[in-house]
Every structure is written in structure tokens, then in C-alpha cells.
């Protein structure tokens, strides 16, 4: 196996272990060694999960591999995936994305994510045909297809109402296994397969089509290391390894259906495909055999570009984009000895050189497609990586309601001067439930001004009262004593005059302002008045100028306001418009949300009452989009739920001190064991320091980590030491100090002693 289990940390190529590598001089002396105690094994020493590597000699006997399997079975594992409701673990990446903008690009998410962004992604070396190659995993957002955050107004989808949803067009999301060093994938064969971890599962490529270099044969599934009698649940069915025959054929049981599978072959057993990847037979007894099985709905098949990723029922349903069938292979140039190169431009997307990838085949862009919303995720196959709309930047309790309504009989008689006779004046009444939530603009009140600076209030009236084309509008407000006051008049005929602004939390200054919108349109007098809420975001990169304005139109007769729209007490499409294209929304009968995050309440019902009601957030609403792996929440999802310690050959481990290392086998057949013990490789017999009929379990310091040598004089002695560590709880009273000796005459726990 070139890459056993999931290496969830970066394993960079440093130098091969063996001749030419300086001995590290790791001994059991010094302060750190004095603190080491096997009684803390495994978790107290950090053994288990993605920080641990089990190393077996490349020339080792099968007994050493079985010992490693036993040790693996006793180690704790890291959680890595779960159902779509799980939260993302640390090591994810995130960005705040404005509504209607692509999630990637600019100062949002990078269009290409790798292990520097998401810890679970691999970036390291694999071994193929006895050579090492740099490879990596990447998540790519195509710039030619949108993956974006949308609302009812931005998506023209009334059913969204005031919700915020994630759109992903077909071919917008890619997972790529990248060959970062020139490699000819078509050099594979059944005897020399290419083993990689693809989307968290084993992908063993055994053939590339001779004429179509996008087509390959491979095993795809989760790889399970099972001892005889062990079981796993896959797709709701229990798979049990019963035994391994002397020819390495395995006998498996799937919910009562028993089948024999010869080594390297695949069989479908009770609806589950099982590939006998590697089997380990021993004459010690059936219960001591073990095997590495690749198990899945489709564990072996021929795959090609645009074919569905295996595991589903063959039908992609856009209403369930998490369906495995909604992802297709994207492969190419597998016969070319080159590197994978990504070309991700605004007008074209492609990958050149050899590449193996999957891309989304679903097209989520309206309510019928079941788009995700806050707290939900799009999951790549096997739940390996998830793209989640984690939260919004404005909490639900950080919204304020603003109402513009026609008032036919506003009373200004309490204001001294010419207003004392005005007890029933038509006006536009603007009010909010927030103290000082409205700021009257001082600079644009040009005549009869009584205020000396901007005034903050929660109630404002605007009254058109001039009979000529100058379009004078009088502005009134309530002061801090709850009394109406006259602020002055503005020249309405000049377009773009700022009359007032929203003053709520961080939505203030120029974020949401009410401006004049038109010159006379009925000859020398007005027949309607346009007032526009102009909306400005955090920056032009977060909200384009004019793209989110809300325009209201008010009817005028005899130089007085008469209604919202042309006809009073009646909803009209033209009385309320949105955006730079002036989309009419006055007759829509559901709530809608703008790019800034403003909620426009039921335009039709409110229009029939001659009012416009908007709910304004305390800041521009952005979606916090996260990309990463999920944590386990309430149990495994059944599609790759844990990350075990990695298993490697001694020739594959480049940097011993980078991990907690368990080296299985003596210095005669395991270069790493020789290195850790400070011995030349190979060291046989008495030169190994191990006595006949015994094995040692020695704990050593390993830079900032720990190392453990598990080695016997003979292979069966090593096997006994592996059984001890698998059953460390039963041997707890004897596993003390920095080293122990294991003796025995059988492979039964009762026949093993630890001193």
C-alpha cells in the first residue's frame, strides 16, 4: 500500500530513510525519558489519530503487518465527517460574502483552496512504482460558473421571501487530486496500482484505457482493516470478516450472506461490493488472520469523464444536491507524463496535464432546487469537504422597522407661526421604532431653516405645498420632548437632494439615505413625487452603486400628496421599484430582501394601505461561508467517519520526528526501528539487542513527539507484542516505565507475559 489510511497532516518530502541519514541518537536517557511511562499509553502519550504513523519494514514478514493491524485496532481515532447538520472542525477556511456576490474571488474565498486553507486536504508525497511523487488535494470554485449568495430580489425568486440562500450552478464546484510532480498514470497495472486517498476513500487505479485517456479502472470505497471476526456497518448492512484462507482468499458475511473473495478480486455480496485488497494469513489459527477490504456500493468499476461518481442510484435529483449521483468525474490526460495545471479564468476553466477530479452536476438556482440556507451545507461526495452558509453577520435582533405612509390629516397646528391653522395637512409620515433612528439632513434644507445642525428623531413628516415648479417640500419632526417642530423646506425640483437618513447601529451616515428623485413631470406642476432610499454598502466591492436602491412613488394633486402610487388605497406595481433596473415590486405579495439585507414587507398588502414598510439591518448583511471538514455530531454518518493513524512502509516515512511513530519489527527488517534504536541497518540476531523468544516495547523521545519500537527476535515474537498493545487495558499493570519485555508460547492473551 503506498498511502495507508488517511494522512490528514502534510507529509512533505525531506529525504529517504536509510543510508546517508544521520542517526538521531534516540535513547531512553535524559529528563524526557525519565518522564515517559507506558502506563500512559496510548492517549496520554499522544498515540492515535492523524498525528500517529505506524511503520512496517518494506521487507517485513506478514506477521509484522498483522502486528501493526493489532496495534491499530487498539488506538483511538480522530473524527472527521458527519451528516449535513454537523459543524465544521478547526482547520477550515471562511469569508464574509456580500449578497449577490460569488463566494470566491476578490477578498472573499480564494478560487483555489488547498491544505493551507483546509487542514484535511492532503499535500505531500505518495509512492508509485518505487518512486515518490508530490501530490495534493484542492477545492476549486470555477470563475465561469457562479457559486453565490442570493435573495428573492437578486435571484428573482419570490418564494425565497426574506430568506438568504446559496446558489451553485452546474460545474461551479470542483475537487481535484493534483499531480504536482510529473507522473504518467497510465503506467499502472494490477501488479503496480496507483493508490491515493480520493475524497477520503481509497482509490486504487489499476488500469487506464489505451485509447481514451480519461477512462480508468479503479477500486473506490472505504478501506477497512479487519481481524477475523471484526465487523463494520456499510450502507446499513453489517460486513464481517470470517477468515482468511492460506491462499489469502477472504470469507466475508454481509447480513447473513457469505461469500469467498480471492485476493485482488471484487465480489458483490448482498448488494455491497467488496474488494479483497490485501489479506494476511497465518497458521496460528483462523482467529488470528486479518485483511484490508475496500467496501462500498460500487467498490470496483470503470470510470470516465462526466460519468457519475459511484455510490448512488444512478439518478441525479437537483432537489437533493447532496446525492452522490449529482457529482461526476472530471478527468483527463492520464497517459501524459506531466503535472496538473489549473486554468481558472473569468471566461474559461480547464485543467491540463494528468488530473482526476469531480465536479457538481446539480444546478441550484431557484426554490425548487432546495438551495441551502443558514446552518446548512453543500457536501462533496463522502461528506469529505462541505461548503456551509454558517451564519449571517447581523443577528436577528439587530433590525429596525421603518414605515413610510400617506397621512391625509397631519396636524401641525401646535407649531408656532404659519402652521397654527394647519390641522389636516396631507403628508408623507416616516417613522421608526428606534429612538433617534432617523437623522434629518441639515445641509439640504435650503429655506426657512430653523434647525442649526442635523437632527435625530424617530418621526418625520414631509408635506408638498408649493404650486409652482420649484417643488418645495416642508419637513417636520418630533423633538426630544415629543413635540412637533418645523425643520425648514427643501428644493424638491433638484434631483438627488438628501432629506434624511437611517441612523441605526452601524447603518448610518450614507448607508441608507432618502433622496429626492424627480423634477416636475406634469408641465409646471408635479403629478407625482419620487422619493428614493439610496443604499450604499461597506464598499463598492461589497455593493455596487445604485444596485440596491428602493424607489417609492407618491401621487400629487393640487400640489398636495394624495396617495402612495397614482391611486389611493390600491396596490400598484410602479409605486415601489428596486435596483438599478427599476424592477417593479409594488404588487408582490410576500416579503422580499435586498442586497444590503433590507427586508421589504409585503408590498402588495402595505401598498393597499398606502404605505411602504422596510426592516433595516444594523449593518450590511453578509453571509459567513465556511469550507472544510465536519465534526462528528451525534454519531457517524456511515460514509467515512474517522481518521485512524496512518500506516506506512519504512521507505515511505521521510521525517521520523514529525509524528508520534510506532515502528513495528526489529532493526533487521525495519529501517526506522534501526534508526530509533541507534543501530546500523540491518542488525540481526544478537546485534539487535533483543533476546531469543522475546519482544521489546520501548518508548523513546522523538523530538517534540514520542516514538515506540515494537520488535521481536522472530516475527511471531513481534506478533505477541502487537497483541499486548491491542489489549493494553488487560496488560495495564505490567505496562509501566519506558520499556518492557514480552514473552510467551502462544498468541492467546492468556499465554503472553509482560515484564
Write the layout of secondary structure elements.
Layout: H1 30-35, E1 52-56, H2 62-74, E2 78-79, E3 93-98, E4 112-113, E5 123-128, E6 131-141, E7 147-150, H3 152-155, E8 165-168, E9 173-179, E10 194-198, E11 201-208, E12 216-227, E13 231-234, E14 237-244, E15 250-254, E16 257-261, E17 266-269, E18 272-280, E19 290-296, E20 300-303, E21 327-332, E22 341-344, E23 349-352, E24 355-360, E25 376-379, E26 386-392, E27 399-410, E28 425-432, E29 438-440, E30 455-457, E31 459-464, E32 472-478, E33 484-491, E34 498-502, E35 512-516, E36 528-535, E37 550-557, E38 560-564, E39 576-578, E40 583-584, E41 592-593, E42 599-600, H4 603-608, E43 611-617, E44 622-628, E45 642-643, E46 646-649, E47 660-664, H5 671-677, E48 694-702, E49 705-712, H6 715-726, E50 739-744, E51 752-754
Parallel strand pairs: 1-46, 1-47, 47-49
Antiparallel strand pairs: 2-45, 3-44, 4-6, 5-6, 6-9, 7-8, 9-24, 10-11, 11-12, 12-19, 12-20, 13-14, 14-15, 15-16, 17-18, 18-19, 21-24, 22-23, 25-26, 26-44, 27-28, 27-43, 28-31, 29-30, 29-34, 31-32, 32-33, 34-35, 35-36, 36-37, 37-38, 37-39, 39-40, 41-42, 42-43, 48-49, 48-50, 50-51
Helix pairs in contact: 2-6
